[in-house]
Design goal:
alpha/beta, 20% strand, nine-stranded mixed beta sheet, binds nicotinamide-adenine-dinucleotide
Length: 418
């Protein structure tokens, strides 16, 4: 069978993640096109995948001006959040299958327009809620559905964003500012809201939320700190110093990937220095134009009274999600989104399952979820099996609407119906 032929729209971090999976799994997918506005990234993608010149575009808009190409089956939309809607609607109208990076779009209305366009096109559609496709999630879902812990009563779920990850992406980086990207709960934790909704398996009815940008602001800039880390005499004592953080990674070739490649994809001292001198990633974390929260809690109530509490925080090491699922017959727990402990009230015994042990994941990103979604989406197209896509239109709009409701609650201080 011929693999799915794909155009990568936005050859940045995520675009290359999926394209690299294509290199490892030529039976599933082949990258035959690229639409990317940055010259270095566009050329790199075209070179690495031997893309024909007439399938290389400087923007998604330039690609969308052509009628559907017969030799391109699907578009992987990996541009920034605020650009998703127009691109997804235009490419779905042209008749491409669409894999769309999360979040769908920064507003409920924009999400609905994407949903309407995909329903009208009838093509395969998946949002990259990659956590649904990990062996860990599949195992938890099967355990819950088997009734091993009885009925779920409530869930306690933590997303440890991580101190340096927050600084990199949500203080200095692309998701720092709601106006230019989306609010933090949507940008970072729509995965978690979606995961909870998948595991509970019931519609969310009400949410309430609190949270703020408490630390990464001018009021916390130490006396004597410079606005650029390269000029700062406090950098050796500052855990947030861009100079210390990125140059340490430059010195270690094993770390020549994310997040350093976002700042300097060439991995040279000269270019990194220039990027930190002039670009967004060299700024003091207390002197940026960021406005998204650095911590947030959300309480959810689902149909039938099941509840969940969610915490997202910057102030922690970065790590796997930590979860406690409390059932009427027992509990399911993890501290790393990998090793699952199941406690049985009747026997008082704990069984442990290591979902990393089998090595079944096609690729490591997001605990195998990046590989898992490629497998599901491409196989769905190749074998005409839409049921393999568990992050389609209906599932995504439901969990996105709960995310928007939570943010409304945070902003208004009221409990909001989802
Ligand atoms: N599924 C996940 O877990 C996950 C993880 C990280 C990011 N994301 C999402 O993936 C998307 C991309 O994130 P990223 O980290 O790859 O960002 P990125 O900035 O690295 O990549 C986006 C690319 O789009 C390009 N671009 C901008 N305008 C364009 C246009 N008009 N036409 C074509 N290309 C254009 C940019 O030059 C850039 O290379 C975002 O929506 C983000 O929220 C998802």
């Amino acid at each position: 069978m011929k693999p799915v032929s794909v155009i990568i729209v936005g050859a940045g971090g995520r675009g290359f993640v999926y394209a690299n999976i294509a290199k490892k799994h030529p039976e599933l997918l082949k990258v035959v096109g690229v639409a990317e506005s940055r010259t270095y990234h566009r050329r790199k993608m075209a070179r690495e995948h031997g893309i024909r010149a007439d399938h290389v575009f400087r923007s998604w808009q330039a690609f969308a001006r052509h009628p559907k190409f017969d030799d391109i089956d699907a578009a992987f939309i990996c541009i920034q959040d605020a650009m998703h809607e127009k691109c997804a609607v235009a490419l779905s109208k042209l008749g491409y299958h669409i894999l769309l990076e999360k979040p769908m779009a920064p507003s409920a209305k924009a999400c609905q327009r994407i949903v309407d366009a995909m329903r009208a096109s009838g093509k395969m559609f998946s949002v990259c809620h990659v956590l649904r496709y990990t062996e860990y999630t599949e195992t938890v879902k099967k355990l819950v559905d088997s009734g091993i812990i009885g009925e779920i009563v409530n869930i306690d779920h933590h997303e440890p964003v991580g101190w340096w990850h927050q600084a990199h992406a949500y203080v200095r980086g692309s998701w720092r500012n709601e106006k230019d990207s989306s609010f933090m709960l949507l940008a970072k934790a729509c995965h978690d809201v979606d995961w909870l909704s998948f595991i509970v398996g019931k519609p969310c009815r009400r949410v309430s939320s609190f949270g703020s940008l408490s630390f990464f602001n001018k009021a916390h800039q130490p006396a004597g700190a410079a606005d650029r880390c390269l000029d700062c005499k406090l950098s050796k004592k500052c855990p947030w110093s861009a100079k210390e953080f990125y140059f340490k990674r430059l010195a270690d070739p094993k770390q020549h990937g994310w997040p350093l490649d976002v700042v300097d994809p060439t991995f040279t001292k000269k270019n990194l220095t220039k990027a930190l001198r002039e670009g967004p990633y060299g700024r003091c974390v207390f002197a940026c134009d960021n406005d998204v929260v650095d911590h947030q809690v959300v309480d959810f109530e689902y149909e039938g009274g099941v509840t969940a509490s969610f915490t997202m925080t910057a102030f922690t090491p970065m790590g796997g999600r930590r979860t406690r699922i409390f059932g009427t017959k027992g509990t399911i727990e993890t501290d790393d989104s990998s090793t699952i402990r199941i406690f049985d009230f009747l026997t008082g015994k704990t069984e442990t399952i290591d979902t990393n042990a089998s090595g079944a994941s096609m690729a490591g990103g997001h605990g195998g979820g990046d590989g898992g979604i490629m497998d599901a989406f491409c196989t769905a197209i190749l074998e005409n099996r839409p049921e393999l896509i568990v992050s389609g239109v209906d599932a995504t709009i439901e969990s996105h609407l709960a995310t928007f409701a939570a943010e409304r609650s945070r902003k208004t201080g009221r409990t909001v119906n989802a």
